[in-house]
């Protein structure tokens, strides 16, 4: 067991590729607290933080044969937790937004039912279109539109250039406009509601 404790992350990864569960347990124990602290800080919920970290380690185990790291394992796991947190918050936000929308904008008169259904249908199509955007493009878009982050804040959080953020936003808006076949003003109206 001491052999595992003194092994480097790279050595442990090599052992994990050979289905070595003890090496995986060592890696898990080595990084659990740090990743949990990051998740807890962002989510403020112990159960959700545990779930996010468990998902990261499960993904690491499932991808053990194909995973190729370009940076350290520490960096890889930290970024993986951040992406999981963003996805988790995105799901929570969309669920809350949907419930809020239905509560606030429920039709109060029969005459408005048709309009309400059309807008609801368009919103569903918008959410589906957003979910089909490429992952980084979707993450950048959601950080901008739903968390009201600036391009600079998004660039810093995702460790990418501001120009890359702008390119993702342009691509997202263009894709959504074309997919939904609507004008930019209508798209902006739907995004702002």
Description:
With 193 residues, the chain is mainly alpha-helical. The protein folds into two domains: 1-96, Orthogonal Bundle (Rna Polymerase Sigma Factor, Chain: A), CATH 1.10.1740.10; 133-192, Arc Repressor Mutant, subunit A, CATH 1.10.10. The protein is 79% helix and 0% strand. The chain is built from ten helices and no strands. The chain has helices spanning 2-5, 9-17, 21-43, 46-62, 73-105, 113-131, 135-145, 151-158, 162-180, 184-192. The chain is elongated, with a radius of gyration of 21 Å.
Summarize the structure.
This protein has 193 residues and is mainly alpha-helical. The protein has helices spanning 2-5, 9-17, 21-43, 46-62, 73-105, 113-131, 135-145, 151-158, 162-180, 184-192.
What characteristics describe this protein?
Arc Repressor Mutant, subunit A, Rna Polymerase Sigma Factor, Chain: A, elongated, mainly alpha, 193 residues, 2 domains
């Amino acid at each position: 067991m001491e052999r595992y404790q003194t092994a480097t992350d790279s050595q442990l990864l090599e052992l994990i590729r050979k289905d070595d569960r003890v090496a995986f347990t060592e890696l898990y124990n080595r990084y659990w607290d740090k990743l949990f602290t990051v998740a807890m800080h962002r989510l403020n919920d112990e159960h959700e933080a545990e779930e996010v970290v468990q998902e990261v380690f499960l993904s690491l185990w499932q991808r053990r044969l194909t995973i190729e790291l370009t940076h350290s394992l520490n960096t890889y796991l930290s970024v993986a937790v951040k992406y999981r947190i963003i996805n988790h918050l995105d799901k929570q936000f969309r669920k809350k937004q949907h419930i809020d929308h239905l509560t606030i904008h429920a039709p109060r008169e029969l005459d408005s039912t048709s309009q309400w259904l059309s807008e609801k249908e368009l919103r569903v199509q918008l959410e589906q279109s957003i979910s089909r955007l490429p992952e980084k493009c979707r993450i950048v878009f959601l950080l901008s539109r739903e968390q009201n982050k600036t391009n600079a804040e998004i660039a810093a959080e995702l460790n990418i250039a501001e120009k890359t953020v702008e390119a993702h936003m342009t691509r997202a808006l263009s894709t959504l406009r074309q997919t939904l076949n609507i004008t930019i003003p209508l798209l902006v109206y739907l995004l702002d509601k």
